hypoxia-inducible factor-proline dioxygenase
Amino acid sequence: MENLLLCGRCKSSFYCSKEHQKQHWKKHKQVCKETPQQRDRPAEDKASAATGGGHSRPQAPEAVNGQRTCQTPGPPNPSGQRVRGEVDKGEEPAAGPLPDTMLSSQVEPGPHGQSGSGSQKLVLEYIVPCINKHGICVVDNFLGEEKGDSILREVKELHLSGRFTDGQLVNQKGDSSKDIRGDQITWVDGKEPGCAQIGLLMSNMDDLIRHCNGKLGTYNINGRTKAMVACYPGKGTGYVRHVDNPNGDGRCVTCIYYLNKSWNAQVQGGVLRIFPEGKLQFADIEPKFDRLLLFWSDRRNPHEVQPSFATRYAITVWYFDADERTRAKDKYLTGEKGVKVELNKPSEHSLKED
């Protein structure tokens, strides 16, 4: 899964070597088709690709503390997608309300007509291997610019409506929440007036997770939270190093969708820095427009949002492991100390299809 070669004709199959590509050509040529961009290539380039010898290197990887990230080898799916809290102060970050939510089965095609089978291919060939190996996975161009724009418009309207409140912590031990996290948030399920496109995003996230289920570690993912729509209003606001689920509340996978056009991290900051457990390297994820980030929610991935100097939008959904969520509820109901599960909120949504 590292330093892979990309088929120069269809741009949809990756190989570990030119020899491997030639060996696979007899089968691959039956489905290998030119992209519109490839049709405009010079004839000699087409001839090379058509013989099974054509290939190109994937886009250069982003630096992760001097190391390549797991997004380097990620094969794109048929839609053209590029695949790529424990707080230091002792505070535990609140996930806000944690209603279990039924995963929607109403998924529209991706930016270039992606189907359910395309989504499944993306999951099986890249997302599952990447998360299981690295604990982190990045998918760029997740929905396409048009759908991303429509989601961004809804988020901005929500922000202007005054529905956002300051992000809170489960426990406050004298410190102000703003000293730890500077975001403003609201929770939506995608069915509220003016949130249809956010609902579409959640449906597409659900579709990916449904294809992942049973393949991510030993988890049995059966539900999720509502979507937390967050805004860092600039002025150096961020979120100190923390873990989303330090105490077994049921969350196993964090999914974050970014909505920041033409984001320049060198000037605007706002990078999500992840410190994978047991590794010397850290991973810097820029909050780029139409980028989806997935990572383990537990202590394996402490992370921080570095100071943002421009308005920064993101939408986060957490997915539940069935067994851990049940244990967390039982501990909460029996009054066991240290359990931070908010059960007095609207019922959680399950993963079973409508």
Notes: The domain at 117-168+180-334 is CATH 2.60.120.620 (Jelly Rolls). The radius of gyration is 21 Å. Confidence is low (pLDDT under 50) at residues 44-99, 102-107, 341-347.
